[in-house]
Write a structure and sequence with these properties.
317 residues; mainly alpha
Length: 317
């Protein structure tokens, strides 16, 4: 195994440093949580209005408790809903929400066109945030003014990298994903004798495609790091440097992602087990609190991964 250059952290060390840096920046996490809540409010209101109008027009159902759902009303509401309101489905509740997101990511399920607006808004929002976040972890500067200045200064290259990453992801789904699941899986599954074997074959292909997605994410993530912390001014040059870095430090990069994916998987399993074993006891406001805590955890993990990427790249700038 090739030894790391002096001062260049490996995956485990970079993960620890990144987690430590994120834990020392609770204000940053809180600010991003509040910013994302404000950004989501217009879309939440757009869904809330038709839902509340529908509930107001429905006759009262006394048998429904605070932790239960009137399935008949929901079915009727979904039948007539359109736009963002049509996305108000059982998949948005509790553990089903992150599970459905992961499933859609691996299966390449198309998203409703009504979500194009929210997705575009949050893509632009994070294009602005990334400049400030990476500058914060690269320089340890805690000033809010420095954060805003860095976020604004790097917004255009961050947005361009996000756009390139989105286009490349679409290309992966049209090529690699289609080859794995529309061609290879059908041929493999047709020769298997049981549903269990077909399931494991599909899981194996999920792992392959997931690895490709992780590799692509790493390239574009380190491209952002090179723009903010490495002084790269050319967008294409930043992407090339991101690819060069990932290729040169493939084991460390893969190890870093494995650590963070492992942490995410552990919390996901705990989240699912809480709902499965807790039943109605984690319904109502408890379910809301747990769901919001999971969102905060995801944002915190995202910041920690960014900090770890900055630390990992620091020795190779």
């Amino acid at each position: 195994m090739r030894a790391h250059a002096p001062g260049t952290p490996g995956a485990a060390r970079a993960a620890v440093q990144g987690l430590s840096a994120a834990l020392r920046a609770p204000g940053l996490l809180l600010a991003i949580v509040l910013i994302t809540i404000v950004a989501a409010m217009p879309f939440a209101i757009a869904v809330e209005r038709p839902v509340m109008d529908s509930l107001a027009a429905q006759p009262p159902v006394p048998a429904i408790s605070a932790s239960e759902i009137d399935a008949e009303w929901w079915l009727e509401f979904r039948r007539h809903a359109n736009g963002l309101a049509a996305t108000f489905t059982p998949a948005i509740l509790g553990f089903a929400a992150p599970l459905e997101t992961v499933s859609a990511l691996l299966d390449g399920t198309s998203r409703p066109w009504a979500l194009a607006g929210p997705i575009a808004v949050f893509a632009l929002l994070w294009s602005w945030l990334w400049g400030g976040v990476l500058h914060r972890f690269a320089t340890n500067t805690t000033s809010a003014r420095a954060f805003v200045a860095a976020a604004s200064r790097h917004f255009v290259p961050m947005a361009a990298i996000t756009l390139i990453a989105a286009a490349f992801s679409a290309l992966l789904y049209l090529s690699v994903h289609a080859l794995l699941f529309d061609v290879l899986y059908d041929r493999v599954a047709s020769g298997l004798r049981s549903e269990r074997d077909a399931f494991f074959a599909r899981v194996a292909l999920y792992l392959v495609f997931g690895a490709v997605l992780v590799l692509a994410n790493a390239v574009f993530s380190f491209a952002r790091v090179h723009v903010v912390a490495g002084g790269e001014r050319r967008i294409v040059g930043a992407v090339v440097r991101g690819w060069t870095f990932v290729r040169a430090r493939l084991s460390s990069t893969a190890g870093l992602y494995a650590i963070y994916l492992g942490m995410f998987a552990v919390v996901m399993i705990a989240y699912g087990a809480t709902e499965l074993l807790g039943g109605s006891r984690v319904g109502g406001w408890r379910a809301v609190v747990i769901g919001q805590a999971f969102i905060v955890f995801r944002l915190g993990l995202r910041l920690a991964l960014a900090a770890s990427q900055v630390k990992l790249a620091a020795g190779r700038q």
